[in-house]
Amino acid sequence: MKIGTPKETFAGESRVAMTPDSARLLQKLGHECVLETGAGKAAGFSDVAYKDVGVEIVKTGAALFKASDVVAKVRPPTDTEVKRLRKGQTLISFFYPGANEELMGKVADKGATVIAMDMVPRISRAQKMDALSSMANIAGYRAVIEAGNNFGRFFTGQVTAAGKVPPAKVLVVGAGVAGLAAIGTATSLGAITYAFDVRPEVAEQVESMGAEFVYLEFDASELPDGADTGGYAAPSTPEFQAKQLAKFRELAPDIDIVITTALIPNRAAPILWTKDMVEAMKPGSVIVDLAAERGGNCELTVMDEKIVTDNGVTIVGYTDFPSRMATQSSTLYSNNIRHMMDDLTPENDGVINHDMEDDVIRGATIAHAKEVTFPPPPPKIQAIAAKPQAKVKEKTPEEILAEETAAFKAATVSQVKILVVGAVVMFAIGAYAPASFMQHFVVFVLSCFIGFQVIWNVSHALHTPLMAVTNAISGIIIIGALLQVGSGNWLVIILSAISIFIASINIVGGFMVTRRMLAMFQKS
Amino acid sequence: MGIGMTFAAYVAASVLFILSLGGLSNQESAKRAIWYGIVGMAIAVVATWFADGVGNRVLILLCIAAGAYAGHYIAGRVQMTEMPQLVAALHSFVGLAAVFIGLNADLMLSAVTAMKEAGIAMGDAELTGYGKALWHKDAVEISILKVEVFLGIFIGAITFTGSVIAFGKLSGKVDGNSKQLPGGHMLNAAGLAVCLLLGLMYLGGSGLWTMVLVVLVAGFIGWHLIMGIGGADMPVVVSMLNSYSGWAAAAIGFTLGNDLLIVTGALVGSSGAILSYIMCKAMNRKFVSVILGGFGGSNGPQMEVEGEQVAIEADGVAAALNDADSVVIIPGYGMAVAQAQQAVSELTRKLRANGKTVRFAIHPVAGRLPGHMNVLLAEAKVPYDIVLEMDEINDDFPETDVAIVIGSNDIVNPAAQDDPNSPIAGMPVLECWKSKQVFVSKRGQGTGYSGIENPLFFKENTRMFYGDAKASLDKLIPMID
Predict the structure, then answer these.
(1) Which residue out of A24, A69, A153, A232 is catalytically annotated?
(2) Chain A residues within 8 A of B239 when measuring between CB atoms
(3) CA-to-CA distance for B159 and B165, rounded, in angstroms?
């Protein structure tokens, strides 16, 4: 199949859905690759780089759509692009089907199959094609960089000869993929980072990234369980929201940088940072609103713009953070696409098998065979997010002591039992057996005892040499044959001679191989 | 040489044997301890050769020379990966010798009894030292002797055929899967009953033919018992046979009234018993259930494994290794099969040269012989102080950057901890999935010897590095810089 990537036509979009690297890997799957000239330029990939890995370059978008069986792009298709689609062709791009129903109807009418990268189900298996997560990761990182760009101070606290610099305080609201990326970036720049999320179970992840989780005093059992909603936060109750806002109001005067990432699928963004909170902030503070596209988490956010309020707070409402890092985001997005193609071509033979039974492929497909296939049925495998585990109760020192004493007592009892039974058996044997036997028997029992004591001390690493050496010394059975071979009976002589022969093999072979092994053990 | 001198030599030999086993507590003292064993054996053999009542001395020398040559030849040529089969083969020799010596004891006993009945005076009969000892025995002692002969022959025969089959399975000459004749363990039980019956008849005076039959029936039991045990349980089988060979020697010691044989047999027997115990404990299984074959009770459906196995190529593994600070390698039988220990050693050397911490985690039942992995790694010149036991390293996995699993499966199966219905539930395992990244070198998808699905392969931080272990590592090594 031919996979083609056109130039993005959306104003300001710098990303591209195919990089030279991903093209090389796509070709390994048996596909051919086509690119509209200059498509990778804004992301830093020249036509030459593509040509070098064997990508065919075509002059116009129309020619590209004509040449390719699969069109991979970033933004949802424009009307012109929809017109260019044909029956049997596959389009892979972001689509936001919930908001673009009319467009979806059009592509379905064309008979093209559409895979929406933003509809990839959130299950473990599909993580490698989860473009929303890879873009959110970039947005989170870029949000902090953008904030730093507009913030007049260091992130990290310093004591210099010229005076003391306090560290910046960053609050990240919403600890999803973008939020966690922002936390990681902010902490590694040296800021004191706080984070908040309505799902208390992410506190652990937040703390693992080095931020402090802002807890609300609230009964956890009243909260919706994030695991039921595919890992996304669920809308919260009015009481909860009131508490949350009160907490933010309390924090606002102290915070230098606020990064909000709170989004719930297919809803307007909740207002979490109200006008009065902005007013309470210090001049020079920065708010970066990653939810600006859906109206923003901050009441004053203006979409796609950077504004400065009367009290000197900068509010960044850009929506194109991934596109601002086009090289990085193109690399990740093209990898997501490549993984999707990998799943679509299970035989690696360049033939696409659009398996509508597969949870991931079915979930992402929004138009197939002239039908709109959105929304998808719920996936067969329910997703991620471990249930909060019941904590194991810590034992008190008294309990541990009691347990140890009990274990010691049990061990004593069992040992005494063994000794008593052993003694009884000994007496029973002694009562009937003649003295000559008992002499040997004493030797036997003591030897077993010594054997047990000695062997327990043998290091695990030397168990094979131990077996070889016991093999060698069990060749001691040769003594028995030596004592018998002098007999007058020819049968006895033959059997003893054979025994001597094989026991000697044992002795010499066993010792030699043990020596060989032991010589190999070397200290570094 | 007088009887007192012989005894003195035997005491010396016993002490030296104990020292030689005790010395195996660490690698350095072991190198000295082996000489104690060799000297002890030399003293014992030479003292017996010079002892009173030993005849055919030239024949003895010839046989020892021939045996020594054969032993030398085998020990010099054996590959370290072939150790399990060599050990099994040597066990079979001890078993066979025990059978022969037991039969001899009976032959001589009947000869001596016949002479006594014919009224020949002891001075006139030309007797060996052992013959004289037999002459002095009273009726009770003769009965006990017969029990000892029976035990020696019975254990010896089981050891012999069992070891031969173990040898066949380990060397691949016999199919490694568990196989049994119809009737299964009932057949073994019947065999045991027949042996006991024959033993009783022998005690009643039924003569040599009963013992010959015992050899055949016990031989059958040994064959059938080991045929029924699968490849993964071989470490237990080999240790068990090791133990049996010791007990057979001890039984022969009783027959001959020789304390050195008893001491040595008891040492070897207890050594094998402890090894079997350690192996069973490491698999969380009862000794009986291993011997009777098949896995222990599973009381419900196993957990479904979610996710998919994600493959990775050598360059990905190399990149992760280049970034890692601490690496733990977990070898298993697959490494031995692929003869990959040299490549593993080379990889270790390169990683260590780059200042990374590299350690090995050895599960007690990795391989087909207790301590098998240690010997293979030592052969490939991996220093032993970076080769650690399970208990020493299990707590360190969360701080490990990369864990590489080479040819092991069940010993790294998280189901042993997570899934109470798994056949290996409760078995102690190496918790490699706690490290940041796990690479599994494996020939292909599918389950291992035990046929148990391994959820490790489906974990998010696990990548499957498919292919023959040696070929994969050879591809990987040049990419480490």
Answers:
(1) A232
(2) 467
(3) 10
Nearest-CA neighbor of B454 among B312, B303, B333? B303
List CB contacts of B14: < 8 A, sequence separation 6 or more: A447, B40, B259, B260, B263, B264
| DSSP of B427-476 | -----GGGSSEEEEEESSSS--TT----GGGGSTTEEEEES-HHHHHHHH
> Which tokens is A228 given?
């039921």
Residues of B with active-site annotation: 410
- Nearest CB neighbour to A459, from listed B24, B239, B249: B24
Q: In this complex, do A477 and B40 lie within 8 Å of one another by their Cβ atoms?
A: no
Residue A118 — left, alpha, or beta (φ > 0 → left; ψ -120 to 50 → alpha)? alpha
**Tell me, what's the ipTM?**
0.84
Q: What is the CA radius of gyration of chain B?
A: 26
Q: What is the pLDDT of residues A127-140, one digit of tens each?
A: 888 888 889 999 99
Cβ atoms of B101 and A476 closer than 8 Å:
no
The whole-number pLDDT of residue B451 equals 65
* Residue A383 forms contact with B (CB below 8 Å): no
CB neighbour list of residue B3: distance below 8 Å, 6 or more residues apart: B51, B52
Q: What is the pLDDT of residues B73-90, one digit of tens each?
A: 988 888 888 888 898 999
Number of residues written out for chain A: 524
Nearest Cα neighbor of B89 from B165, B196, B150, B4 is B165
Q: What are the φ and ψ backbone dihedral angles of A372, each rounded to 5 degrees?
A: -80, 125
Contact: A479, B258; criterion CB under 8 Å: yes
* Tokens matching residue B449: 């010897």
Of the residues A456, A474, A485, A516, the best mutation for testing chain B's interface (the one with the most B CB atoms within 10 Å of its CB) is A474
Nearest CA in chain B to A434: B141
The pLDDT of A438-444, averaged and rounded, is 87
Rounded distance, CA B240 to CA A133, Å? 56
Which range (A30-34, A115-119, B18-22, B108-112) has the least confidence? Answer: B108-112
Q: Which of A133, A323, A334, A496 is labelled catalytic? A: A133
User: What is the SS3 assignment for A466?
Assistant: helix
Best of B10, B11, B38 to mutate (most A CBs within 10 Å, chain A): B38
- State the Cα–Cα distance between residues A97 and A119, nearest whole angstrom: 8
Answer whether B436's CB lies under 8 Å from B401's CB.
Answer: yes
Condensed to tens digits (0 to 9), the pLDDT of residues B303-338 reads 666 667 788 888 888 888 888 889 999 998 888 888
Strands A90-93 and A306-308 come out as: unpaired
Residue of B nearest to A451 (CA): B267
Going by pLDDT thresholds of 50, 70 and 90, the confidence category of residue A500 is very high
Tell me whether residues A477 and B97 touch, CB distance under 8 A. Answer: yes
What tens digit of pLDDT does each residue of A292-319 get? 888 889 999 998 899 999 999 999 999 8
Rounded alpha-carbon distances, angstroms, from residue B9 to B47, B129, B456: 6, 17, 57
B409 and B447 in contact (C-beta within 8 Å)? yes
Whole-number Å distance between alpha carbons of A184 and A196: 14
